[in-house]
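Hi U.,

Before I forget, here's the chain from the pilot set. I'm dumping it here mostly so it's searchable later in email.
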Amino acid sequence: MTSPPAGPGRARQSLVYRAGVLGHRPAVPTDSAELEARARAQMSPRAWAYVAGGAGEGATMRANREAFDRWRILPRMGAGHVDRDLSVDLLGRTLPTPLLLAPIGAAALAHRDSDLHIGRAAAATGVPYVLSNQGCSPMEEVVAVMGDSPRWFQLYWSTDEPLVDSLLRRAEASGAEAVVVTLDTTMLGWRPQDLNLGSLPFSQGIGIAQYTSDPRFREVVRERVAAAAAGGGKADVQVTLGALRSLLSISREHPGRTRANLRSPEPRAAVETFLDIYSNPGLTWDTLATVKRRTSLPVLAKGVLHPDDARRAVEAGMDGIVVSNHGGRQVDGAVASLDALPGVREAVGPDLPVLLDSGVRTGSDVVKAIALGATAVLLGRSYVYGLALAGADGVRDVVANVVAELDLTLGLSGVGSVRDLSPDLLVPAP
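Structure:
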């Protein structure tokens, strides 16, 4: 009897090629270009605009990919590594790979019950899932399908401070192992793809489930409804087919029965309240520093690109940094995350966890990011494309493909462990 393939790379290849003998091709493409194309064909124009779109003319999105292309891997031969160690140590836990699933808001645009599917895939692969503050299912429902699989929680800092505390308490109770505070979205960037369609999922009630399931948020909504009723005024709403569709969407997404929600003022008030208070343009480093006395969980600052901001985050007590430009969705013409990574790593020293987000598509991307100083990386749009194609199985397949290529790239480059990666493996592109 032959031995099984050594490592996830050869195992994945064997699985695909054996299926090919029977005439089966992968339901989820193994290359990023075809994955994106197939997902686009599957998704609605509104979903595609939100998931794939970026800020302005898309310069930052392009820069994220160009930054990876500016580095070349210089393989070494004769190392003899039959097995590769893909594990990393992060915040007291040893993870099987250096991958995490990034928080993606309003993913139900790509697939119904999106967060539950993503949670199941994360549990199946052992990859931590950073639950989005703009999720489409309450965090409690998502962790119920994840079992003991690791999960983090992303926090958008609301203008309502009691809501911040309530979300942190729920994250702790849900078994989150860390909180990721997103700093770069104190307001939405200029996103023409969404603007040209007049499409904001949150205004349709999509992506606000963490809020409508939150006791503090519901309290604020009830107060607003009561104040409006006491005032005796009615909103001047233009009745159009679009308005009726929006009302139906809001009522379907809100907790409770759709028919009852159609007659209730609360679902519409919840959307209006969310749009008013979900983010805080006045967020400062001093405000951020208060989070360390408001939760017992490790806290990472997400959206850091400048070395001085990385130092400020450390001074504010952050337990880690996520180098990110929000996938190119906030500032058009911003620096690529990978380009910012070495400076941030130098600013905070060798020991603080530094994660990279934005532009990661492949296993070789992961190699480059870690070689340049990342502790781990966050995978974003790619797994949503897999979600659109095949639900939880699609997310699982995308993760498995990235891990397989990571494993093979290490082996073929003469590297036996993710922990051995360093800038010495890379050379600038000519």
